Amino acid sequence: MQFEVDDRIHTSAFWLGDWPLSAVYLKNHADFRWLILVPRIANAQEIYQLSIIERHLLMDEMVALSAMMEALFKPDKINMGALGNMVSQLHVHVVARFKTDVLWPHGIWQPDLIANPYDAEEANGLVKILRKKIEEVSVTS
Amino acid sequence: MQFEVDDRIHTSAFWLGDWPLSAVYLKNHADFRWLILVPRIANAQEIYQLSIIERHLLMDEMVALSAMMEALFKPDKINMGALGNMVSQLHVHVVARFKTDVLWPHGIWQPDLIANPYDAEEANGLVKILRKKIEEVSVTS
Question: What domains does chain B contain, in order, with CATH numbers?
């Protein structure tokens, strides 16, 4: 079966680029700097279904993405999560968290998360910056 | 500085064993089968602070733990998270989730999580089973 990104990710996030394993997205939620890695492996739902090479590469991409976000956004904490309770396709959230953000210190995966899409100008500006960064980063294992 | 597990983990979870990188704990919360990996690296707060060998080993332990929990608990979904907003010491949650559990489909890291410690008999039984499993699993990279 050919790999396709789940529609619920594709319609709620901006595509930023493809790394060796994963497509990288920016979640369309202006309250957070929230990126998502979607490994391009058909039918994967759990990390343990990946081969050892794939899962180490996923870890390298999680690290590359969080280090990039750390440098760019200077957050108080990086949060990572692989849940998949709603969208079962394997995807990893990497979120820059601030002590001043609306859900601190809790996780973002909760009922109190209220939709707050970017306005077009803000999205365009951020996507442009992030696409350039994603392209520049060389994920090494 | 010598490594010590943060008191807030040590007092809210049962120690199950030590794997090559991480101490393994069972969170004292009877609503979930919720395990925690604490890499025994002093002062680590973010995964990107680990060496490449350590972070690949952490991934191998996340996979070994989730595969063990999958076989033992037969959950609907494994949830993994590395947050650290409250306890900054690096630790990774691995949680067996069920469509019937009290917080499904949301994450567990949220204000609606109500404390529900195990009673002693239930904890003793589960810890015994899990310690044996943790000892049996050989984490390979």
Answer: 7-136 (3.30.428.10)
